[in-house]
Amino acid sequence: MERNQQIENFLSACDDVYTCKFLIAEHKIKKLLATLASTSQVCDLVAQCVEGFNRDKEFMRAYLQNSKGHFEFQAPNDEVRMIALVFCTLAEIDNGNIDFADFIKRFFSDDDSITPYDNFVNKMILPFRNLMAEAFGYPKLGEQNNQIANAPDMKIGRAHV
Hints:
- By secondary structure, this protein is mainly alpha-helical.
- It has helices at residues 5-19, 25-37, 40-50, 55-62, 79-94, 100-107, 116-135, and strands spanning 63-65, 71-73, 154-155, 158-159.
């Protein structure tokens, strides 16, 4: 497949969110969304995914409280719904409708072996990035030695920089 610099820039923006520190994550999310908006092919794919997507219903399915009163994230099994859910969540964070720190702490603190932010990027950003890469014929992160640059300490596929 022919290389497309705009799509590569978008995937790089995803990688930036994936590898950054929590402290600058909101800034990186803003840049990711700006890159998405300026990449017509990616924008078109996301538009197709959000068409018919019931944001409120899907948020209730994905961000829930279990029977013990703990909050958790349940990723959709459907790839189209996953792309739409991640995009809508990032847009809500960027618009200030979701308090990012509270969101991360509330829904991604279920794994004591990694930080809530690491859990968030592993469950949301990486799958989103890989689905988008696959849609445009690029390898998923981790395939064919396609590791993120400057990521020497990999834990669960994510750099702790």
